Description:
By secondary structure, the protein is an alpha+beta fold.
Amino acid sequence: MYTAKDIMTKDVITVTPETEITHVAKIFMETGINGVPVLDNDENIIGIVCQSDLIAQQKDIPVPSLFTLLEGYFPLTSMKKLEKEVKKIAAITVADAMTEEPVTIEPGTPISEIAALMTSEKFHSLPVVEGRKVVGIVGMADILQTLTP
Length: 149
């Protein structure tokens, strides 16, 4: 049975929180990849930024619904969630668009577990880590390649 280390891409493109969104978009367009790990100054993984994070910038700012009770107004969505959405839409750098504390896998993770995680959580890319260091990345295409001789 295949594991992450058997199918992962070892030469991983990474970015920092200070990387501009336009640069990340260019990486996605030129390479065809879906996501890149975000590393801190010590090269530890702190997030991931995916195409869907950049596409979120094209959304309209969500307007929370309100209801009244005894002449008071109450939002139906949390302000924290609204702030997060607005921050992502207005992102200029990776720090504002990335998903913090991303789901990661280890080199020994079986392909069946990776496939289940990707399908249930709708992930297209999963960083492979040892400790907090990125040693590879597994994308959906890596799994598909195991189906061909």
